[in-house]
């Protein structure tokens, strides 16, 4: 069997306008013809938190389809891959926005994205499912983090499933040295992707500082996590914290990894509508050879 033609490839930094400061996603723009096994192998090779594959849509309601892989598994939805892939699709000219909007098909359904004149992209997140963390797992969470949440942790599913904990302050969030083996074990016990923590910021730039840990998926710490931030927004809404942080706010993430991502969030309709926003910039482009 002859080798496939080279596949167009971009590595896009998301939640930043400055290269190498956000969260990179690998985007394969010619995913049609690749098997799921080949996609997973490529995702393992890039070794980024996510790698995406752009495909023709199967739904007439969508402009394109996206498959999203961590180094170990496929995800129905993820935030920064969605925004980074939309940036790549627009930059390459595969798709143009219609009335400022794109429609992406993924495992979570058809999602609507909006494109602002300055290039910031927004995606309406899938409907979140929120429930309290099983009380029997709270001691394991506290041991894994080495810190105690200031209120009841929640389990939030937006495709990925995050255990979300409010640690009170950005200083506590920044000082964490979590036990990754314990987080992976806890994630398995809770059927979760990982743990996302947040705390109130006092930096004058953001409302919250956020960190996300998913060692069970081969991502010890996600530099700037879209689904983690969506889950925090769902927590903020459920816990009545919009009075404190606002229904529209900015969070920062990634400083402990030498990054400085800025994530824009909007919460409406009592948390039933959550929008994730951010900028993106291409850092690498070329082709992949697949045999």
How would you describe the overall organization of this protein?
There is one protein chain. This protein has 291 residues and is of the alpha+beta class. It is globular and about 55 Å long. Helix content is 23%, strand content 37%. It has helices spanning 36-46, 79-92, 138-145, 170-175, 180-189, 226-238, 242-245; strands at 7-14, 23-28, 51-55, 64-69, 74-75, 101-106, 109-115, 121-124, 129-132, 154-157, 161-169, 194-200, 208-214, 219-222, 248-253, 261-268, 273-278, 280-288. It is built from seven helices and 18 strands. The termini are close together. The protein folds into two domains: 7-124 and 278-288, Diaminopimelate Epimerase, Chain A, domain 1 (Roll); 129-271, Diaminopimelate Epimerase, Chain A, domain 1. The chain has an 18-stranded mixed sheet that branches. Helix 3 packs antiparallel against helix 5 (180-189).
Total helices: the number is: 7
CATH structural fold name of the largest domain: Diaminopimelate Epimerase, Chain A, domain 1
Taking Cα atoms only, what radius of gyration do you get, to the nearest Å?
A: 18 Å
Terminal CA distance = 9 Å
List the domain count as a whole number: 2
> Could you give me the name of the CATH homologous superfamily of the largest domain?
Diaminopimelate Epimerase, Chain A, domain 1
Count of DSSP strands = 18
The chain-level mean pLDDT equals 96
In short:
The chain is an alpha+beta fold. The chain has helices at residues 36-46, 79-92, 138-145, 170-175, 180-189, 226-238, 242-245; strands at residues 7-14, 23-28, 51-55, 64-69, 74-75, 101-106, 109-115, 121-124, 129-132, 154-157, 161-169, 194-200, 208-214, 219-222, 248-253, 261-268, 273-278, 280-288. It has an 18-stranded mixed beta sheet that branches.
């Amino acid at each position: 069997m002859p080798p496939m033609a080279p596949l167009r490839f971009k590595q896009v930094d998301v939640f930043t306008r400055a290269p190498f400061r956000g969260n990179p996603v690998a985007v394969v723009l010619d995913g049609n013809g690749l098997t799921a096994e080949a996609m997973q192998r490529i995702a393992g090779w890039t070794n980024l938190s996510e790698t995406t594959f752009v495909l023709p849509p199967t739904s007439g309601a969508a402009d394109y389809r996206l498959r999203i892989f961590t180094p170990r598994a496929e995800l129905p939805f993820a935030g920064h891959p969605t925004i980074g892939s939309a940036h790549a699709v627009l930059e390459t000219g595969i798709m143009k926005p219609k009335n400022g909007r794109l429609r992406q098909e993924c495992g979570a359904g058809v999602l609507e994205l909006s494109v602002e004149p300055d290039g910031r992209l927004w995606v309406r997140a899938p409907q979140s499912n929120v429930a309290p963390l099983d009380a029997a797992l709270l001691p394991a969470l506290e041991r894994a983090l080495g810190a105690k949440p200031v209120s009841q942790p929640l389990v939030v599913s937006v495709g990925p499933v995050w255990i979300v904990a409010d640690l009170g302050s950005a200083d506590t969030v920044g000082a964490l040295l979590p036990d990754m083996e314990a987080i992976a074990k806890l994630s398995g016990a809770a059927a979760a992707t990982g743990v996302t923590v947040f705390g109130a910021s006092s930096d004058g730039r953001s409302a919250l500082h956020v960190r996300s840990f998913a060692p069970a998926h081969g991502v010890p710490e996600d530099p700037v996590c879209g689904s983690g931030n969506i889950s925090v927004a769902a927590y903020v809404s459920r816990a009545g914290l919009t009075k404190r942080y606002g229904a529209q706010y900015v969070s920062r993430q990634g400083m402990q990894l030498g990054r400085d991502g800025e994530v824009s969030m909007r919460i409406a309709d009592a948390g039933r509508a959550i929008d994730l926003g951010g900028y993106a910039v291409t850092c690498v482009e070329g082709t992949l050879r697949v045999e």
